[in-house]
Amino acid sequence: xxxxxxxxxxxxxxxxxxxxxxxxxxxxxxxxxxxxxxxxxxxxxxxxxxxxxxxxxxxxxxxxxxxxxxxxxxxxxxxxxxxxxxxxxxxxxxxxxxxxxxxxxxxxxxxxxxxxxxxxxxxxxxxxxxxxxxxxxxxxxxxxxxxxxxxxxxxxxxxxxxxxxxxxxxxxxxxxxxxxxxxxxxxxxxxxxxxxxxxxxxxxxxxxxxxxxxxxxxxxxxxxxxxxxxxxxxxxxxxxxxxxxxxxxxxxxxxxxxxxxxxxxxxxxxxxxxxxxxxxxxxxxxxxxxxxxxxxxxxxxxxxxxxxxxxxxxxxxxxxxxxxxxxxxxxxxxxxxxxxxxxxxxxxxxxxxxxxxxxxxxxxxxxxxxxxxxxxxxxxxxxxxxxxxxxxxxxxxxxxxxxxxxxxxxxxxxxxxx
Amino acid sequence: xxxxxxxxxxxxxxxxxxxxxxxxxxxxxxxxxxxxxxxxxxxxxxxxxxxxxxxxxxxxxxxxxxxxxxxxxxxxxxxxxxxxxxxxxxxxxxxxxxxxxxxxxxxxxxxxxxxxxxxxxxxxxxxxxxxxxxxxxxxxxxxxxxxxxxxxxxxxxxxxxxxxxxxxxxxxxxxxxxxxxxxxxxxxxxxxxxxxxxxxxxxxxxxxxxxxxxxxxxxxxxxxxxxxxxxxxxxxxxxxxxxxxxxxxxxxxxxxxxxxxxxxxxxxxxxxxxxxxxxxxxxxxxxxxxxxxxxxxxxxxxxxxxxxxxxxxxxxxxxxxxxxxxxxxxxxxxxxxxxxxxxxxxxxxxxxxxxxxxxxxxxxxxxxxxxxxxxxxxxxxxxxxxxxxxxxxxxxxxxxxxxxxxxxxxxxxxxxxxxxxxxxxxxxx
Amino acid sequence: xxxxxxxxxxxxxxxxxxxxxxxxxxxxxxxxxxxxxxxxxxxxxxxxxxxxxxxxxxxxxxxxxxxxxxxxxxxxx
Lengths: 418, 429, 77
Description:
heterotrimer, B: 429 residues, alpha/beta, FAD/NAD(P)-binding domain, 3 domains, 5-stranded parallel β-sheet, 8 helices, 28 strands, 20% helix, C: 77 residues, Alpha-Beta Plaits, two-stranded antiparallel ribbon, 2 helices
């Protein structure tokens, strides 16, 4: 019998800096039932083969969120009239990462229709400039925090500009996004306090978004939210307000909470592999390989949740109908059956089919943004930092086990070049 | 069973066939460590090029016909004999005679001579100006020129994949087009008329005229030019351009007299990939790959099949190249057959073989949305799947086919929570 | 995107995409928008002979393909 406490050990913050030995132990069984505090446990898939197969399995649902059930307030009008309506709206208009076909496909295609390569290309150039500006501001310091000074503000600015969120409103999102991102952590589903907080946060951000959408209908801008609020796709999809709010919130939260980890984990990894840092400095053309290997080696999203809607036979076991599934993407990325010498950071690997962005229907929509933001940031850091070193290794980590990355990454430098 | 001949750096390996399979087979020999002389013989005057764009983007004009040369890591270490074909094979003397009268002696030979377009039944009619087929880049260039002249109507004879692709191109170019086939639907022979009919409805929506259940008797001429087709039922369709898309025949005639077991259906191979003679004995110096190779497929009980698929040409040629270079360590070649076809802005893909299927069901998606997966069963087992704009689901069905899972599948899928699926007759004539 | 032969690089990169593998993730279209385009939901159109100055974008496209379906030959490497 596999050790069923491994998932709980993974969630333990003490193991945040290096969960990989635990992942290796999980991989001894491609799919294993792990204790997660719920009566039935959760089926954890940890090999590349098992994860890939489940990602593309039509019997695996992404509709994993429990029914909305916001806390009662004691006010009968709120609790018996408003609450059921609000709960129903939330249930019926989940963002598309928590939806299955055909709804998922329609919603995602509406976003893809706005997420044009021209728009993305424009943001790529913008990202290069933003990185230089953010680093210019640290020109005279000898120590800075890569998270607060670069890795967080860069993707946040990009996603806000892409969606046409006014810059002055951005600080509000910081708090909202951190709270809502906890919905991707397994315990948020069972912890009443977290759920209550998430409900309140969602109401606040949804209220803001609803107003912004109205504004975009009155005064159309050149941004994605204006496009989504006003246009119909070639397939005839035009999002209703509730779906649009849920989608916009998803995109904004994702933009705040994921790429920050890619950039920070990236610099951390390069500082731990100074030869690779030097090679990137000498040849910025290596950046795409470095980033693809980072997505394998230290993926920003370590795992995602799913549910079996039919019994699924896989790797010698049967996941029962209704079984919760945890796809441990970061473990699959270090599967020796697919990646020789998997614990080695090696940007020169050939034919890397990593799981860093998931796969199949729910492949990360923001992947192109993550890639070019990381490229802007890491090439500039490699070029401009003189003798960088980690002040603290391992650095302090953020709370999340799913969205895993340093809380701060203090780097000491001898200078900042151009 | 004879042993694999060991090649040395003094050996000469010859590849007959300058297409995708020949190129990938030659690369595989190098990858497996073969350092001797390597010659590729190709009967077209061009380096190996990619054919799928010829019936699509070359015809629409998005691509010039001569830009699809295939990427390769073979460099100067290959001798090219282009514009010359194989004429005959003398296995005793280990020599290959070429159409220019020269001979090549080989220590290892890879046969990848592929196919050519199946000719129209009346050769004199096929030579008429205005009548085209598509196999080579020169064919595609000629047809493109004819389409640019904006004919009043194009007839496409044969509603297989190439025929459907050409019909879709004509509509993209806003040219009237008529698709003629004896089956009750397009693609009827390959995917059956149940699913073929769904594809046909899409073509009709694009404005393709369908003449189904109809056969062409003659291509008619006036003043030495093609002017229309006469159907077997006596009907007549006027057109200025005819595209003959009746499938392909395999280039094996040059093997007559070689003692190898070959005919218009391909050249027989053993389970390793070596070609066999009339008595089933393998020749350990000769392998075949791509469209021309008829090999025992482990998924189909060792029955010999030949596949005209792009991915198969690549994978099997890699296998055959390694085999000839002395690396017989790999597993028996038996990839699940798969292919794709781009028709206008619609992508049709398939895994498995529909041959002999007795049932089909739309298991995901919705034909009304032009987005679905059809799963085929034979004697209660999954044998093939066809996807329309649903490629990401296909690997899951490939797995059901590889493992011969029960048909119909009993489980709910995300967009069919009720588990209710209708089983249809696939409609193979 | 290519138009006529005259405008083309005489020693271009050579590109092919295994469209059996392709699942229309469109990462190449973002990495190299001048050379890859999705038509409809999943019909990928690509330039099989982009000029050598597209090298960096083609490398991004090749590396980022989730199913590793893109093959590029660079005459200068």
